[in-house]
Amino acid sequence: MLEQKYQKQNGFCFMLLVFVVVQSSLLTYDTGNFALISSGCKNGQESTQTVNFNGIFYKIPQIILGLEHVDQQFPTDFRVTIQNVQKTSFDLYVICPGAQSVIGIKYQWYAIDDDRIQVINSFNNLFPTVQTFNHQLPSATKGIISIISFGVGGTMDFLLSITSLTSTQVTVDITSATSIKSLGYQVILGVEEAFQDTQIIHHTQTYTSGAIVQQPKSWFFLGYCGMAQEFGNGFRQKFVRTSVSQSYTVTTWYGAFIKAHHIRTWITYQFTTYKAFECYTIRISQLFDLEVAIKPQIYIDIGEINQSFSSSSEVVFDKPITQLTISTYMKCAKSKKIVSKFLKCESCSSKNYYQFTHYCHGTINEINYFPRYRLNQLVYKQLNIEILSDKITVTQPLRNPEVTNPVLIEIKIQAL
């Protein structure tokens, strides 16, 4: 019996060990390069090619493309779409509608599974204009644009730029788009630390970057956000990276130099782990209020932003806050009790909350809670406040690799 029990326990431990090892070996970020076209493409030719990751992702990642090599006749048109993104690979579909040949197209690709970056794909826009996109990253403070395909019918000289970024929308403007037949691009949004040392560089001749300081846990991204070319000339340009000292050049071959705007930046692939506010002190008062009848059943005050709430709301802090006071007021009726909890330690294995129970009776008709929270991270912060007739819940959405919603405050009115 003892031997069988020991064997079962060891079997369970072995299975648990295998699960932990397998899970820890799954990817959350990856990068590589890929030649989409290498032998010419024209007259409606199309193809779909698969790009394999260097392992298996835990979840399906987002894909970012940096166009680093273009070799094509002029006028030209090639249209690219990212398709069928899986945990092990993604597909690139390309079609070349024009009569002039697209000789070579190469990308540096980046795959990331992290909710602090959002990629918006805008594939193959015909005769593009200003566009506004909805996004799901309210903490986004920065963004970049990467052109991934284009088709032109004449002299071109255009530039894409982000002109507005709010908590729900981003607007992309385009200048001098008259000769553009099609344009595909990505808008990559991120939290404050997602992009470092971003520069948009207008080059009219061979460009050499010089040595660039490596940023930790980041990819060095190169791509285009604008191009200029005279009608009739071929379009040949490429980025050449050097690895001994981090640097690159932008060069043209067999023809006039292509004037362009390129973007360079460091894209973070491993972020700071964002944490929740934690309550370090709380004061509670029980009283009989003669004016309780004219007050809401439940309402809260947040002193740091000088706002009060008596209905469900979302609060976004537009300035750094490390201390937070959330004063909560509850009516307390006879034959009721109020059960409350306040987050004191998100990472503790047990006793994560301060918990209280208060009873209502003839001499108490209001209970007030004055918890103080602190968090030393100077990052984006958001609170979601849900107020019902008998309950209030305050959560703090945290965008780490996955979105979590730790509960800072939960107070419920219950029958005895």
TrEMBL record:
Gene Ontology biological-process entries: cell adhesion
Regions that span the bilayer: 12-29
InterPro entries named in the record: H-type_lectin_domain
Pfam families reported for this sequence: H_lectin
Every H-type lectin domain range: 48-112
Transmembrane among keywords: yes
GO molecular-function terms, A-Z: carbohydrate binding
Keywords: Membrane, Transmembrane, Transmembrane helix
Protein name per UniProt: H-type lectin domain-containing protein
Organism (species): Paramecium sonneborni
